[in-house]
From TrEMBL:
InterPro entries: Tscrpt_reg_HTH_GntR (IPR000524), WH-like_DNA-bd_sf (IPR036388), WH_DNA-bd_sf (IPR036390)
Provenance organism: Salinibacillus aidingensis
A Pfam short name: GntR
Protein name as annotated: GntR family transcriptional regulator
HTH gntR-type domain residues: 7-75
Domain of life: Bacteria
SUPFAM superfamilies from the UniProt entry: Winged helix' DNA-binding domain
PROSITE patterns: HTH_GNTR (PS50949)
Regions annotated as coiled coil: none
PANTHER family: TRANSCRIPTIONAL REGULATOR, GNTR FAMILY
Keyword presence, DNA-binding: yes
Record has Transcription as a keyword: yes
Length: 204
């Protein structure tokens, strides 16, 4: 699926949920259509629907309960979120700014990681690298850095930006060993190397 097709799926899912809420007069706590139903109705892949729902969940609008389904958490700001999503997906300059903010957040996580790194956290980060690969490794590695810094606000902002960034052109050149290189730079407290590694991902 191309980036434009993926963006279309995100917009369709947002619109579908908005219409479903209005037509059925749902309130916080009410259940939304299942991933399977959305997949069939929108003729999109299950993974694309899941990613879109995850992005909406990161906004705090819905919540997924294991074994039960997806439920409305709050609705009042939904129209604003829909407009925000459309603005991000359609504005070329906004896409660039989105990725720039994402990169700056990741740089900040790595630099804060330098201040909090210890043998326990090094072991956890090594474990993350062993468990995942490619883009998944980088995502969970950065997430671990935010958890290490114990800054939930930064983590939530980054996860929100990460969710939206799936709809735009993001560098996919997650070469083998990049997380190991980043961890080594953090251990060595080499801020210049950290900036070089992360900047190269975004071609900056």
């Amino acid at each position: 699926m191309t980036n434009s097709e993926k963006a279309k799926v995100y917009q369709e899912v947002l619109e579908k949920i908005r219409l479903f809420i209005e037509q059925h007069q749902l309130s916080p706590g009410d259940r939304l259509p299942s991933e399977r139903d959305l997949t069939e109705e929108l003729n999109a892949s299950r993974s694309s629907i899941r990613e879109a729902l995850r992005a909406i969940e990161l906004l705090g609008l819905i919540e997924t309960r294991h074994g039960e389904g997806t439920f409305i958490k709050t609705y009042r700001p939904y129209h604003t979120v829909s407009l925000l999503s459309t603005f991000i997906l359609n504005g070329t300059r906004t896409k660039e700014e989105l990725l720039e903010v994402k990169m700056l957040l990741e740089l900040n996580a790595a630099k804060l990681g330098m201040e909090h790194i210890n043998q326990t956290s090094i072991k956890r980060l090594h474990g993350t690298i062993m468990k995942y690969s490619g883009h998944h490794c980088y995502y969970y590695f950065i997430q671990e850095l935010f958890l290490l810094c114990k800054n939930d606000l930064l983590l939530n902002i980054w996860q929100l930006i990460e969710g939206f960034s799936k709809t735009v052109d993001v560098a996919d050149e997650f070469r083998d060993g990049i997380c190991q290189e980043l961890l080594a730079a953090i251990e060595n407290k080499d801020e210049h190397e950290i900036q070089l590694i992360i900047g190269n991902l975004y071609h900056l």
